[in-house]
Amino acid sequence: VLGLLVWALIADTTYHLHAAYGWVMFVSIFFWIVTLLFFVTYLLQLQLKFYVIPWALTLMIFNAAATILYVTAFVTCAAAVQPTSWRQWDYNRRAAASFFACLAMIAYGASTFFSFRAWKGLGSNAATSQVSDHA
């Protein structure tokens, strides 16, 4: 949802006049679509059919890449916001897009942390670890 907000806010401005916003648009659109594909994959439980793919590792790598690229998109978007814009609503929308890009970056960072824990198996407790030892 946050990437969709960044995408919509930037698309509603005159972003084509500034090359920096092209990068922000690419990152927000690309990761919104891929996140949607992962969501549909887990919603339909397709990961059970494609058991050869290490889904925990795949999700961790995806979230880490999204975090890194959203850092660059956030910095680019925030640095390109000019308060002396010739249209005031462009400034407001670009500033809001920077804020939501920061929130998306934090959300992907938290997802990276949790997917790393899931990949390493650090979320289990003593009861589940003892049951799996005897199985």
Automatic annotation (TrEMBL):
GO MF: structural constituent of myelin sheath
Keywords recorded for this protein, A-Z: Cell membrane, Membrane, Transmembrane, Transmembrane helix
Bilayer-crossing regions: 20-44, 51-75, 95-116
Topology with respect to the bilayer: Multi-pass membrane protein
Top-level division of the source organism's lineage: Eukaryota
Domain MARVEL: 1-120
Protein location: Apical cell membrane; Myelin membrane
A single GO cellular-component term on record: myelin sheath
Subunit details: Forms oligomers.
Family membership: Belongs to the MAL family.
Protein name listed in UniProt: Plasmolipin
